[in-house]
Design brief:
Elements: E1 6-15, E2 21-29, E3 35-41, H1 46-60, E4 65-68, H2 77-83, H3 90-111, H4 123-148
Parallel strand pairs: 1-4
Antiparallel strand pairs: 1-2, 2-3
């Protein structure tokens, strides 16, 4: 399997018609923009994020870099303990630079694809809508990728 260079993590959140809020933890390959996981739940703690990352690494292999967006789940002791890094290490600076790249993907999905708020009910439908939005984003990027690829 080809090694994943960088993995991006971010949340999309909305609420059901009856008012209960839910979140989807999205894990995206930074190079291919493939959605590696979309984990919907009403509450996702730092421990849950660490567990999902561990399962992803077990099935897909360890990426060279994991880029976390802002969020309490990503700064919790559970993640800092799982990651075993601090802001003083060189990887933290690289992480900060890569955050801007991740906003390209999630920003487009939230704004252009209209997924800042979901308009569907149920986990399966929300996951399907998000997967469709990522596929649309990938289709838009094809001309740029073809222009950048060496002949």
């Amino acid at each position: 399997m080809k090694k994943t260079l960088s993995v991006l993590l971010d949340f999309v959140h909305d609420q059901f018609v009856f008012g209960r809020r839910f979140r989807i933890l999205n894990i995206v390959n930074d190079v291919t923009r493939e959605c590696l996981a979309a984990i919907p739940d009403t509450s996702i703690s730092g421990k849950r994020v660490a567990r999902e990352l561990t399962m992803l690494i077990d099935t897909r292999g360890k990426p060279q870099m994991i880029v976390f967006e802002n969020g309490a789940e990503f700064t919790s002791n559970a993640i800092l303990g799982w990651d075993r890094r601090t802001t003083r290490q060189p990887g933290f600076g690289i992480n900060q630079v890569c955050r801007e790249r991740s906003e390209e993907v999630f920003g487009w999905i939230k704004e252009q694809a209209g997924l800042a708020k979901f308009k569907v009910r149920g986990r399966a439908k929300a996951e399907a809508v998000f997967t469709f939005a990522v596929a649309a984003y990938n289709l838009i990027r094809i001309p740029k990728l073809l222009a950048e690829s060496p002949a």
